Amino acid sequence: MNTVFEQAGPLRRRYAQLQESKPKARIRALAGEMGVSELELVAAGCGQIRPTPLRGPVRDILMQLGELGRVMALTRNEWCVHERRGRYEDVRAGEAMGIVLGPDIDLRLFLAQWRHAWAVDDGGRLSLQFFDAAGGALHKVYVTDETDAAAYQALVRRFADPEPRWPRLEAPGDAPAAYHAGADPAQLRADWLAMRDTHEFHGLLKRHKLARLDALRLAGADLAQQVPADTAERMLGQVAGQDISFMCFVGNPGLIQIHTGPIHKLMRTGPWFNVLDPLFNLHLDTTAIAGAWVVNKPSDDGWITSLECYANTGDLIVQFFGARKPGVPELAEWRALLAGYCPEPLAA
To answer: Which residues of 235-273 are buried (b: 16+ CB within 10 A; e: fewer)?
Structure first.
């Protein structure tokens, strides 16, 4: 689609000027500097982008992604990028929630946040990109040399909007308030210890009107204790060195993307600590980690231990678990690794 929106020309010119001074900057960073959304830059066709808006419920597009074969799925927040290669398999999508349960691409979808879908040709690099109501990017699906290119083009034709219009955006929502001042630590501990599944934790937070980080601070050191901010980098090195299979969760308001398996190739590039394996890449800005916590939750399968990293805003950056499935106890080597970071014993 040739971009004809009246808003496009001024944005393209501003983008070109800024990109010339910062040629290595990503579109997300440039959008932030320009004070616009990433979606607006896509819609304007900035740089080498040739955009095509897609119509119809987003879930209908998601249900067709399996036709593309092997792709690269990308989910990120401000501080961490999670890239996983594979197929979209066992895709289920309802009005508000969805899930992808393939062996390679594993997603939990919060579809109420998904408002806009665009096909993007960026100098020959093809992708499907999904945005929230404010124009922030939630998830991207990139064509690779293993993708069925004909299936991709057929999907774009099937969903292309015959009447393209400039995206109608909403102002970003306010950050959720923290309510820890009125919380009852004793009742929080009792309810925490009564959990039988880690998925009950979200309900516990809602019941106690607590932000996640506030719950960790109130629970007690045997259930959650802060560790040095560099623990994530240390852990990734030890997981790779000991060949421990683990799970890495990265999310934003629209979804969580999960990797399960070992990792091997690690590399630092400036503030970013990277996993650079053939099927899984992780880019973690370790300078953004304001706090790291080892978190200990009971379940019917025994204690489940995670390492969680938070930004100075209180937002969760990334979460790590030992590889496991429901009904299977936690890996002993993972538990021992995380317990070794803790100055005080964990409940067991």
So the answer is: bbeebbeeebebbbbbbbebbbbbbbbebeebeeeeebb
Q: Does residue 259 lie within any of the structural domains?
A: yes
pLDDT digits (tens, 9 = 90+) for 126-150: 999 999 999 999 999 999 999 999 9
Confidence at residue 324, expressed as pLDDT on a 0 to 100 scale: 93
Same domain membership, residue 234 and residue 147: no
Q: Residue 49 burial (CB < 10 Å; 0-12/13-18/19+)?
A: buried
Same domain, 229 and 330: yes
- Its domain, for residue 229, covers 180-339
Residues 207 and 301 in one domain: yes
Same domain? For 191 and 52 the reply is no
Q: What's the rounded Cα separation, in Å, for the pair 216 and 307? A: 12
- Residues 25 and 16: beta-carbon distance below 8 Å: no
Asked whether residue 41 falls in the same domain as residue 150, the answer is yes
On whether residue 289 sits in a domain, the answer given is yes
Quickly tell me which residue has 């306010």 as its tokens: 174
Q: In this predicted model, what pLDDT tens digit does every residue of 189-211 receive, in sequence order?
A: 999 999 999 999 999 999 999 99
Structural domains of the chain, count: 2
φ, ψ for residue 345 (rounded to 5)?
-65, 145
Phi and psi torsions of 315, nearest 5°: -75, 145
User: Which two structure tokens, joined as six digits, stand for 166?
Assistant: 């400039």
pLDDT band at 7 (very low <50, low <70, confident <90, very high): confident
- For residue 314, the domain's CATH number is 3.40.1570.10
Question: For residue 291, is it within any domain?
Answer: yes
- Same domain flag for 238 and 203: yes
